[in-house]
Write a structure and sequence with these properties.
This protein is mainly α and 171 residues long. It is 35% helix and 0% strand.
């Protein structure tokens, strides 16, 4: 993950779905698992089209109903976790409900995301700062949060060494 031309990283800034696709494309090299729909809202000359197509093929990102991707939409924390769990093929090993009780705000996790968030939590992908018990699933993910989640996903994939942290959620 790179910074900006002015030499800043802007850790508190949010990240778009297109930017997240570009980050995933650089971080993970996997074999395609599925066909990619022709997203109506991503033009052939859009800067992130190759990343969007590749990350969709390997199972990280999906669009919305009607073949819409919304590349400029800010990505939420729960969407990042669902994408990472899906792309890595993580499945919950324990009762999802039990694992999700780790979070004080578990009731805010959308139903579609509960299995993947549970799997991501169990795999050690979730990093919550300053309070590990608060997921804030619907909040837009910051660049710092996405960097931490992706790093943990790389640890899970066996590509990097873990860095001990009290902010990595342990169910």
């Amino acid at each position: 993950m790179r910074g900006f031309q002015d030499g800043t990283f802007k850790p508190g800034s949010s990240i778009t779905r297109a930017e997240f696709a570009a980050l995933l494309q650089k971080a993970f090299k996997q074999e395609p698992k599925q066909k990619v729909p022709n997203f109506k809202d991503v033009s052939a000359n859009f800067w992130a089209l190759p990343a969007i197509e590749e990350t969709a093929k390997i199972g990280f990102l999906r669009g919305y109903p009607g073949n819409v991707f919304q590349p400029k939409q800010k990505i939420s924390r729960v969407q990042v976790l669902v994408a990472l769990a899906s792309g890595l093929g993580l499945t919950p090993t324990a009762s999802s409900k039990e694992v999700l009780q780790t979070y004080q705000d578990a009731e805010q996790i959308p139903n579609y995301a509960k299995q993947q968030v549970s799997a991501a939590t169990k795999a050690g992908l979730v990093v919550n700062y300053p309070n590990p018990k608060l997921l804030n699933p619907k909040r837009n993910a910051t660049r710092a949060e996405v960097a931490a989640f992706v790093y943990q996903a790389l640890v899970e994939a066996g590509n990097v060494e873990p860095i001990p942290s009290k902010y990595v959620v342990q169910p």
